[in-house]
Amino acid sequence: MFEQGTVLYEIWVSRWALLQGLGVTVLISLLAIVLGTILGVFVGLVLVYGRWVSRFAVRMYVDFVRGTPVFVLVLASYYLLTQIGIQLTAFQAGLFALVVFCSTHVGENLRGALQSLPRGQTEAAKAIGLTFPQIFVYVLAPQALRQALPAWINTATEMVKASTLLSVISVAELLLVTKQIVARTFMTLEFYLLAGLIYFLINYAIERAAKAAERRVALPS
Amino acid sequence: MAQPILRIENLHKKFKEVEVLKGVDLSLETGDVVSIIGSSGSGKTTLLRCVNMLEEFHQGRILIDNEEIGYSGPQHKARKESEIARQRAMTGMVFQQFNLFPHMTALRNVTLGLTKVKKLTVVEANAIAEKWLARVGLSDRSNHYPGQLSGGQQQRVAIARAVAMNPKVMLFDEVTSALDPELVNEVLNVIKDLATEGMTMLLVTHEMKFAFEVSDRVVFMNQGRIEEEGPPEDLFRSPKSQRLAEFLKSSKF
Questions:
Q1: Of A40, A132, A212, B227, which has the highest C-beta tally within 10 A?
Q2: What is the pLDDT of residues B118-141, one digit of tens each?
Q3: Chain B neighbors of A221, CB-CB under 8 A
Q4: What pTM does this model have?
Q5: Is there a contact between A102 and A163 (Cβ–Cβ < 8 Å)?
Q6: Which residue of B has its CA nearest to A118?
Q7: ipTM for the whole complex
Q8: d(CA B230, CA B34)
């Protein structure tokens, strides 16, 4: 199709490897965001409404994880978990690290959003006789989620970028595949540029979708 | 003499070590309109918030329609959260800062309590809400969000939200203090309208002229106690205590 030795030829030759790498990147990011968000909602709720013991424990967890580079988290969950007898594949270990990382960001973000709501909102809801679960569902959560949305999008794109760190523990995601192709073709600049472009497109798509979502839930004023 | 609908007996309230209510007694019969006046820090807003259980109190009793609010028995045992929620619906509260739910239309703000607390159907709730929004002059704004309404309009929606629940007593906490001067009257007129209808009301206000016109009785609070209480003509024209005389002199009429 293309002349042998050109970039396009090498891309064509590597197309399945690249697509597979892309698939792994998307899968990891998606799972990390979904699972991390679910866990993060619990983290946030405990930080705001938990009793002091659970709040303290979760606060330690959040501060510890957020104070650690994601790279270290990835290495630790791959190498250290084995030491204590938990056998995870590289994929599982990497995903675990990203989920933990994501949950602290989502949790902290949700905490901030909930606590920034004026106290009058809860009081007005109490005054008409709503119980606490009702107040949370109908009054606080809808407002907090709107506020948390921009930061959540930011976290989602961070997860896509952080997924590249899994190349170090031999998860064949897009960056590792790219490295392998570069090692074979020596077309360093070309293939790293290609990888960069693909990451950009993924995150650009996320941000466009999120901006649309933000507009949809925006309150008229 | 009729049974009081709201009875406050020997109410004491402390914030940490500071006692802000030092034994308050007050009774309202059905249809009474009572205004509480006094300088800031006198405990008038706290008193109102105790009636709606937005503040805890440490001693004394509050009864609405002969039911003890928030606590029970001589041990002053706190009631369950679900029971307190039910009791809160016996009173309607309007706040200084409106506190409308910004993510809901005016109509939804009013129907939320009707559907979730009173368990009415959406159709029933909408009918009641539309009736009350019409009453406060906002029929054409029912599908607007709070952010699209003026302060005066928001406060009128907040009044509709509270009265739609058909409370036994309405509580108004400095409801015009956050409004631009030209918007104050539209809100006061709505309250006057409700007062002439026979609604039982307890108001905290800085609008002395309004308190004079609308009230059956005025209560002057000072340093956590009721200093003087009586018909507005008596309190405003011939105050007995030195403090009330000074307070009236320093406030705009």
A1: A40
A2: 999 999 999 999 999 999 999 999
A3: 145, 147-148
A4: 0.87
A5: no
A6: B99
A7: 0.92
A8: 9
